[in-house]
Amino acid sequence: MKRIKKLLVANRGEIALRIMRSAREMGIQTVAVFSQADRNALHVRFADEAICIGPPASSQSYLVMNKIIEAALEANADAIHPGYGFLSENENFAAEVKKAGLIFIGPSAESIELMGSKLAAKTAAAKFNVPLVPGTAEPISDIPQAKKIASEIGYPILIKASAGGGGKGMRVVNHEAEFEEQMERATSEAMSAFGDGAVFIEKYVTQPRHIEFQIFGDQHGNVVHLFERECSIQRRHQKVIEEAPSSILTPELRAKMGKAAVDVAKSANYYNAGTVEFIVDENKNFYFLEMNTRLQVEHPVTEQITGFDLVKLQIKIAEGEKLPFQQEDLSIHGHAIEVRVYAEDPNNNFLPDIGTLKTYRRPQGHGIRVDDGFEQGMAIPFYYDPMIAKMICHDETRERAIEKTIRAIDEYEITGLETTLGFCKFVMKHEAFRSGDFDTKFVEKYFKPEFLEEKSVEDEEIIASILATQVVNESKTAPLKTQHNITTSSNWKKNRNN
Ligand code: MV4
Question: Disulfide: which of 2, 113, 277, 281 matches 91 by Cβ 3.0-4.6 Å?
Fold first, then answer.
């Protein structure tokens, strides 16, 4: 067992802060790395030390392994936490960190590599009888044979890149006539995107729910799951709303899927935090898709319903400690919903809307957690992911968590750029979401930007008339209530999305 005294966080934004906060509570010194665009970022200010690792582009800073490892050695750190994105699922990075005599806070390089290959992951999982989507177990080499398999499975089928994941390099084939064309496209896309052209076939589950299990393993062979997260509300393979637990799992199905998730982890000799991704069809059949070998963006909903700090657990496991609990000790407490606040315009196909946070006020109150990396007046840099914040609401039941989320969205004040908050409120109010009867096609099926449409001219007229009232009121000492309406003019727009 080796105690970590100083930790370098190889990331930026909210997750860098999230990790450093837990480290500090454990008495661990923190080292930030930053690009030239992040000189004034909050993670830099929060850390005990900070080291500049290069120009703004992540390819010249947050993705450069040797700069980060050199920074860790220079600062005398004994461990590196990669966060999510950037180098977090790069097996070479995990291996290089270890070679440099440092602790990598995550799984082994071997586990990362195994799960990086979707085909190898499926082969490993199959040895533990984990349910897989019907399909091929090997890369396709022979087209006539692949066509034969496809017609046996039945169209529509999906062609997936073995080196892909997260929806990258997937092609739907509806009829045999399209097979060769789509196959060639998938192969050449996979080749140019991943340097590996291996593709395989799966039956296409047309309207699945995406349910993932949080698992944790220690370096002594113990593995448990910390229940599931429902992540079906997404657009373009980007999640926007996540919740725990899922409203469709019975205790029996949860136990079955949980065991399958633990078996997937065991098949990879996995330790530290990981996520096992399943799709569930309309008959509640579940299938293992892939495993993510990092701490995920949406981990806070699991923290809220289990009460554990997942980053502290990660650090203790990396130090060599045993898991502090067994499966039977764990239970679900209440319901948690996370909404991701992106600097994106839902009126404009969710395209990034970069700019400055002219006003930025977080919601407050019982059961509300905001993980963010910005303050009022800061600009959202366009070099990186446009996520401003994650807001997590926790309450006793799903219904109450939904009501709390709506209240908190109304209280959240962001001006200076467009965000996904109004979209998230639309989802919270939608009957399909509220009843729990939805799948990964929710956005396509139900969302139209018109539902958010704000007649800005009309808004301006309203504001102008309030301003006029204020001038009159001020001359006779305005009551506070009138002034309040003016400062929350951004909420006037939001409230029209009801
Ligand atoms: C699928 C699928 C349907 N059938 N595989 C997308 C992300 C990647 N992890 C796998 N994905 C899917 N694989 C079969 N055989 C549908 C998806 C999928 C999806 C999965 C999870 C969450 C959102 C999704 C959105 C579209 C498609």
Answer: 113
